[in-house]
Amino acid sequence: MTGPTVVRAYRDGDDDALYDICLRTGDSGGDASGQFADPRLLGEIYVGPYLRFEPELAFVADDGDVAGYVLGARDTRQFEATCEQLWWPQLRRRYPEGTYPEGSRDARLLGLVHRPPVADADVVATYPSHLHIDLLPRTQGRGMGRALMERLLEALAATGSPGVHLGVGIGNERAVGFYRRLGFTVERELPSALIMARTVP
């Protein structure tokens, strides 16, 4: 049973629910359950470090159960360095290279643990913060995505961030349209993704 949806700050105890949402939206917004040998690995990359290092920039859509989230990092370069020092090493020990068959979804995901991507220098120079947002289908189309984004933008503004960027699959037209309506523009076009950004009010 779900009730009115509210946006609230992340709190201890939300972690498992956020990991689950990450998996259930991990196929370009669709459900990736059953697609990975370890269902927590996706969350260890896209959720865990944000909750650990920048919990004050984590917000949740709650309709009686956790139904979505937005996660941010104030300084992408500092966040990358912190993860390299304190987050990726433990995952590399837990998931050594070769753990999964070459070419599998898990192996490709594990490549992000052993060789984390580095944000584009030109993008970071103007838009140093970044974010991830995911909503379960039952919460979509009800204004909660916008509410989550506005809450994060307010929090980033309070930190003095001048701008924020994100990555989105190039074929995820619904998400691209959503970001455009929120004032994001395309800064980089990669083979399979767009880097979009906007200033922080």
UniProtKB/TrEMBL annotation:
Pfam families associated with the record: Acetyltransf_1
Keyword Nucleotidyltransferase: no
Superkingdom, natural source: Bacteria
N-acetyltransferase domain: residues covered: 66-201
InterPro entries: Acyl_CoA_acyltransferase, Glycosyl_Hydrolase_84, GNAT_dom
Keyword Heme (UniProt): no
Keywords for the protein's UniProt record, in alphabetical order: Transferase
Any GO molecular function: acyltransferase activity, transferring groups other than amino-acyl groups
Protein name according to UniProt: Acetyltransferase (GNAT) family protein
